[in-house]
């Protein structure tokens, strides 16, 4: 699909919603880092507890949940996040965009009042993980609820409409955000803060002599370079951009 727009004005506030700890960093980490460096107040919302995010069948769930929450905090620091990191705490693998979850995310949107909302594209084809689909629908449905005053009046919060919605992992991306070396370095640092995910998502094993980590860095850089070539830039992250008044 043709890239129709590039580089939103740096928002005053942005909220990025991910299914699991590290999803936002993979999908939009460099964009958020660039905005944060330019003065944007970035906040993050993580929908699940990450309790299934390990290949170790003997892992203790409570310990893993605590570890992933701490890692998310470290990742936020690496990105330059100055807003909040919100945890919905839904069980990993069981996320549903139901009324309760929609209300919680809509309340976060109304309270944090982001100019730009970022999340998973729920319409991506052949997606395996159900939490990614659910998180995508959750952010879309919560935006609609947050913008219209007759949804969830019990919040006691003024309704709020973000001026832009960017969805990562999109099959049909039509918007690009330029990212520079500094933003990519921040993205990589944020991803590496998720140390519990080295083996499962970054192919970095305990026996790594440095080569696996170099390959991971190259992977992130190559993905940005490929996206950048579509818009004549050295690096970019791609999104589907949806109007917020449909």
Q: Can you walk me through this structure?
A:
It is a single chain. By secondary structure, the protein is α/β, with parallel strands linked by helices. It has one domain (5-242): Rossmann fold (3-Layer(aba) Sandwich). It contains seven helices and eight strands. The chain has an eight-stranded mixed sheet with strand order 1-7-8-6-5-2-3-4, sandwiched between helices. Helix 1 (23-37) links the parallel strand 2 (13-18) and strand 3 (41-48). Helix 1 (23-37) crosses helix 5 (181-192), helix 2 (61-79) packs antiparallel against helix 5 (181-192) and helix 3 packs across helix 4 (130-147). The longest helix has 19 residues, at 61-79. The mean pLDDT is 96.
How would you summarize this macromolecular structure in one to three sentences?
With 246 residues, this protein is an alpha/beta fold. It has helices spanning 23-37, 61-79, 99-112, 130-147, 181-192, 198-202, 211-229, and strands at residues 5-6, 13-18, 41-48, 85-90, 116-120, 164-168, 175-178, 236-242.
């Amino acid at each position: 699909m043709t890239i129709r727009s590039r580089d939103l004005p740096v928002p005053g506030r942005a909220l990025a919603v991910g299914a699991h700890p590290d999803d936002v960093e993979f999908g939009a980490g460099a964009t958020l880092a660039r905005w944060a460096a330019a003065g944007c107040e970035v906040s993050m919302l993580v929908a699940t507890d990450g309790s299934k995010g390990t290949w170790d069948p003997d892992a203790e769930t409570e310990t893993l949940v605590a570890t992933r929450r701490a890692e998310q905090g470290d990742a936020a620091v690496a990105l330059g996040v100055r807003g909040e990191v919100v945890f919905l705490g839904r069980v990993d693998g069981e996320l549903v965009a139901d009324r309760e979850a929609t209300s919680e995310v809509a309340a976060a949107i109304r309270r944090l009042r982001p100019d730009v909302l970022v999340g998973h594209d729920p319409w991506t084809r052949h997606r395996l993980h159900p939490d990614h689909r659910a998180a995508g629908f959750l952010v879309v449905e919560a935006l609609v609820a947050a913008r219209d005053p007759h949804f969830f009046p019990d919040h006691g919060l003024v309704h709020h409409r973000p001026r832009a919605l960017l969805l990562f992992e999109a099959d049909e991306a039509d918007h690009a955000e330029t990212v520079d070396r500094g933003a990519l370095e921040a993205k990589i640092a944020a991803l590496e803060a998720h140390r519990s995910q080295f083996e499962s998502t970054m192919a970095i094993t305990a026996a790594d002599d440095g080569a696996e980590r170099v390959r991971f860095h190259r992977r992130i850089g190559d993905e940005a370079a490929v996206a950048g070539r579509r818009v004549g830039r050295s690096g970019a992250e791609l999104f589907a951009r949806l109007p917020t008044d449909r």
